[in-house]
Design goal:
This is Holliday junction branch migration complex subunit RuvA. By secondary structure, this protein is an alpha+beta fold. It folds into three domains: 60 residues, OB fold (Dihydrolipoamide Acetyltransferase, E2P); 69 residues, 5' to 3' exonuclease, C-terminal subdomain (DNA polymerase, domain 1), CATH 1.10.150.20; 61 residues, Helicase, Ruva Protein, domain 3 (Orthogonal Bundle), CATH 1.10.8. The protein has nine helices and five strands; from the N terminus they run βββαββαααααααα. The protein has a five-stranded antiparallel beta sheet, covered by helices on one side. β2 and β3 form a beta hairpin. The relative contact order is 0.09.
């Protein structure tokens, strides 16, 4: 219903903002990650929006960028994860860190966040890993034709691009990691590639 709100930032708190759009003030709940990217009150701002409707309650949620909103919506699709917990997760880790924990099969990174239990973290990783892997990388970047001939490399490269790594860095890590892994699954190749990037 609402794609975004563009106007004057009237108030900003770590968990909510008020945006004046043509004389109408809209209150949106936000994550601390979005809060830290906002201008000072009185400045012009564009906040992406998500309207959550439950029974007789309608609440707007705001996001600084599309990646955060997209991840918020994916989290809401998980049983037991409501908007309050989804925002807590987005406040507890950066979007890239959450995606990395999911595709690398590391639920322990998530249950360190207040309110996220071990079962919920495991469910998030299990149900979202394939969906995160299939997300189009930011900027519409595509794997090279060489890697696209190999579906395993293609999936791993897409995962790293989605996590925000440059194509050259991701490609080098994937190729090197695959060379010394025997019959790996996608998650094995992604995990090994992430390790290679961190230690390079």
């Amino acid at each position: 219903m609402f794609a975004y709100f563009r106007g004057e930032l009237v108030e900003a708190f770590p968990d909510e903002v008020v945006v004046d759009v043509a004389g109408v003030g809209y209150r949106l709940l936000i994550s601390s990650a979005t809060y830290h990217q906002l201008p000072e009150p009185g400045g012009s701002v564009r906040v992406l929006a998500h309207l959550h409707v439950k029974e007789d309650l309608m609440q707007l949620y705001g996001f600084f960028d599309e990646e955060e909103r997209q991840l918020f919506r994916l989290l809401l699709s998980i049983s037991g994860v409501g908007p309050k917990l989804a925002l807590a997760i987005l406040s507890g880790l950066q979007v890239q860190e959450i995606q990395e924990a999911i595709v690398s099969n590391m639920p322990e990174r998530l249950f360190e966040i207040s309110g996220v239990g071990k079962k919920t973290a495991a469910r998030i990783v299990l149900e979202l890993r394939d969906r995160i892997l299939k997300l189009r990388p930011s900027g519409g970047a595509k794997p090279s034709s060489t890697l696209s001939k190999n579906s395993l490399r293609d999936d791993a490269l897409n995962a790293l691009l989605t996590l925000g790594f440059s194509r050259s860095v991701a490609m080098k890590a994937v190729i090197e990691s695959q060379a010394h892994l025997e019959n790996p699954q996608v998650e094995d190749l992604v995990r090994e590639s992430l390790l290679a990037i961190r230690t390079s």
